[in-house]
């Protein structure tokens, strides 16, 4: 193992690339940081807290892009293929970790690195080529302006290897659109504008080939752990549904339960649901199943619309496509949703933010705030499939109304005024995913306090939705949200896929999670030890936000969720009034040992967690 690093699962070194002078360096991974923060989002947060001055421009050369693996990457542990791309976000203005699956993270480890730190800004377009020990910064002028898949195709031919793994940006990233994503082979680091950060550095692509392996202290222990986890994958019904239908497996059930967000969240029941379910998708467009590295779930659905105006070839659609371009925009055509997904990939756009921006514009049109003159002649009504697709292209090209929507709903509403902010569905600038919180208090306070804002990967509504806890009471919901935060951030640091939620959660860090970490690293963490790591990770991310000026006032919900009860269906009447949210925040902060006034960690809490260095920034 490199540099004498004593723990299993780690390569023991980081790769640093400075794009200003195109230099490459390799440095030891700090053992104390690995033990305290594990990897992935937690370790990247520690690195960026150390290296980024506060209040820098996220699109300036001072920002750094960190691609981080975790110790479990590259082993036979299932659902452990994720990778974290982290930076100060141009969209939320704080630390952001965008997580994606596939093969790129394991490949980076096989090349010999636990992570890649990219700093500075190249004077002209470049890409980074990592070929085991050989690393270079190459000219990318011939790739600039190409869509992500075309750029990948060119690079594979140029390098002469169809098996390399590549992260690329599209036009949105090149133009530094604040919610541009990074396409990593076929999977997306979609949220938070990591593609814009990459574009701001004139970095078109990162290509990786690794021929090494990952060392573990006891291969038999890892094998037995993987065997146990794969047996769970094969027998737990919720996971099996993913194997057959992918993430759209529960569309019909969510609609029947009154929790399928519809018409820009004006309601949570969609009458056209029956035509966009996972079952319909499987019947009409799915041609095959694809899995990430060493994963037996096979949740990615390779889908084809062979002809017609919605002709498309995609890996999806996922639930967020069905929510975003389906029920939220009131479109009930599964083939059109495939086309919407393909267009977002083509331009390199975060699908969720794109969809919510269009739905917000549709509501502006519905309420007379926008006219046909504003929409370039498009009748931008809910349900207008072709108008929706046209608007994706306008956002991708930043043309007409698309230039405004490319800024995101928070900034667009500030520009438009006329109370249009009242139907923006975002927190901390990030548009909402397709998971409600109006009936679920723990999910509500988890969304409100989450560092990324509208992210369903900082909180999950599973416990309240499934009846594991009583959703109707406020008691204990702050504590529940905090413990769900902990299993999610630990997974994002080990790089375990959240779709294995029944295995890794759902109420707190599970024994399966701890066993996977211990088996690979050789550690012997108990529950309290694992929880302390997760709490430390969550607190350093909160310190990053506090250093950027975030306080309790930034922990909020969309106005619609606080003032507009669900109008119909089984959850009719549900909402989270502001006074309820404030009570939940008090409970959450108290459980965490944070200051009730600012909502940030106290000196005592930081000392307890070994984060003394942050006291000067936060307290």
Describe the structure.
The protein is of the alpha+beta class. It has 3 domains: 208 residues, Aldehyde ferredoxin oxidoreductase, N-terminal domain (Aldehyde Ferredoxin Oxidoreductase,  A, domain 1), CATH 3.60.9.10; 188 residues, Aldehyde Ferredoxin Oxidoreductase Protein, subunit A, domain 2 (Orthogonal Bundle); 178 residues, Aldehyde Ferredoxin Oxidoreductase Protein, subunit A, domain 3, CATH 1.10.599. 41% of the residues lie in helices and 13% in strands. The strands form 4 sheets. It has a 6-stranded mixed β-sheet, with helices on both faces. The longest helix is centred in the C-terminal third of the chain and has 21 residues.
Question: Briefly, what is this?
Answer:
With 619 residues, this protein is of the alpha+beta class. The chain contains 26 helices and 17 strands.
Number of helices: 26
Overall pLDDT level: 96
The CATH homologous superfamily of the largest domain is termed Aldehyde ferredoxin oxidoreductase, N-terminal domain
CATH architecture of the largest domain: 4-Layer Sandwich
Topology:
Elements lengths: L12 E6 L4 E6 L2 H7 L2 H12 L12 E5 L14 E6 L6 E6 L3 H7 L4 E5 L6 E6 L2 E6 L8 H12 L5 E4 L2 H4 L7 E3 L2 E3 L4 H7 L2 E7 L9 H17 L1 H9 L5 H6 L21 H7 L1 E5 L9 E6 L6 E4 L3 H9 L6 H14 L3 H16 L18 H13 L3 H5 L3 H8 L9 E2 L2 E2 L9 H9 L12 H5 L10 H18 L6 H4 L6 H11 L5 H21 L11 H5 L14 H15 L10 H6 L6 H4 L1
Parallel strand pairs: 1-6, 7-12
Antiparallel strand pairs: 1-2, 3-4, 3-6, 4-5, 7-8, 9-10, 9-12, 10-11, 13-14, 14-15, 16-17
């Amino acid at each position: 193992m490199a540099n004498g690093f004593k723990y299993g699962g780690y390569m023991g070194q980081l790769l640093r690339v400075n794009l200003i002078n195109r230099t490459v360096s390799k440095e030891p991974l700090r053992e104390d940081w690995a033990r305290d923060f594990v990897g992935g989002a937690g370790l990247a947060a520690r690195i960026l807290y150390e290296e980024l001055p506060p209040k820098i421009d996220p699109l300036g050369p001072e920002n750094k892009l960190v691609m981080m693996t975790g110790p479990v990457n590259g082993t036979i542990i299932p659902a452990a293929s994720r990778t974290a791309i982290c930076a100060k976000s141009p969209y939320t203005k704080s630390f952001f970790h965008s997580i994606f699956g596939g093969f790129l993270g394991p490949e980076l480890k096989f090349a010999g690195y636990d992570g890649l730190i990219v700093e500075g800004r190249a004077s002209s377009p470049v890409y980074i080529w990592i070929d085991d020990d050989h690393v270079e910064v190459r000219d990318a002028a011939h790739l600039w302006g190409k869509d992500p898949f075309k750029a990948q195709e060119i690079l594979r031919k140029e390098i002469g290897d169809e098996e390399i793994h590549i992260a690329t940006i599209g036009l949105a990233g090149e133009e530094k659109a604040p919610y541009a994503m990074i396409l990593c082979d076929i999977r997306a680091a979609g949220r938070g504008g990591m593609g814009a950060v990459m574009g701001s550095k004139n970095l078109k692509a990162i290509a990786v080939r690794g021929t090494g392996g990952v060392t573990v202290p006891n291969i038999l222990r890892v094998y037995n752990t993987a065997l146990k986890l794969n047996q769970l994958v094969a027998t737990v019904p919720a996971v099996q549904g993913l194997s057959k239908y992918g993430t759209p497996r529960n569309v019909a059930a969510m609609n029947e339960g009154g929790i399928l967000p519809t018409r820009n969240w004006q309601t949570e029941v969609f009458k056209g649901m029956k035509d966009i379910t996972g079952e319909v998708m499987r019947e009409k467009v799915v041609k095959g199943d694809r899995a990430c590295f060493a994963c037996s779930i096979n949740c990615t659905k390779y889908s084809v619309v062979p002809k017609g105006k919605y002709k498309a070839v995609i890996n999806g659609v996922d639930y967020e496509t069905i929510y975003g371009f389906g029920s939220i925009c009131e479109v009930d055509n599964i083939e059109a949703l495939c086309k919407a997904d393909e267009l977002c990939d083509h331009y390199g756009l975060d699908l969720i933010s794109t969809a919510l921006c269009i739905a917000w514009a549709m509501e502006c049109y519905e309420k007379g705030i926008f006219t046909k003159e504003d929409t370039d002649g498009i009748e931008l009504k809910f349900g207008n499939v072709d108008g929706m697709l046209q608007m994706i292209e306008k956002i991708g090209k930043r043309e007409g109304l698309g230039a405004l929507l490319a800024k995101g709903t928070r900034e667009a509403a500030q520009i438009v005024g006329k109370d249009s902010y009242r139907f923006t569905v975002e927190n901390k600038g990030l548009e909402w995913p397709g998971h409600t919180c109006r009936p679920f208090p723990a999910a509500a306070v988890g969304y409100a306090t989450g560092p990324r804002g509208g992210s369903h990967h900082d909180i999950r509504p599973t416990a309240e939705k499934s009846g594991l806890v009583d959703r109707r009471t406020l008691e204990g919901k702050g504590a529940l949200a905090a413990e769900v935060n902990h299993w999610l951030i630990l997974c994002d640091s080990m790089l375990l896929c959240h779709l294995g939620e029944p295995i890794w959660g759902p109420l707190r860090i599970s024994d399966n999670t701890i066993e996977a970490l211990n088996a690979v690293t050789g550690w012997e963490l108990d529950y309290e030890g694992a929880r302390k790591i997760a709490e430390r990770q969550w607190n350093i991310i909160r310190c990053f936000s506090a250093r950027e000026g975030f306080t309790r006032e930034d922990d909020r919900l969309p106005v619609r969720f606080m003032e507009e009860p669900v109008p119909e269906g089984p959850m009719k009447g549900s909402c989270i009034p502001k006074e309820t949210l404030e009570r939940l925040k008090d409970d959450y902060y108290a459980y965490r040992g944070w200051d009730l006034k600012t909502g940030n960690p106290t000196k005592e809490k930081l000392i307890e967690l070994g984060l003394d260095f942050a006291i000067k920034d936060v307290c």
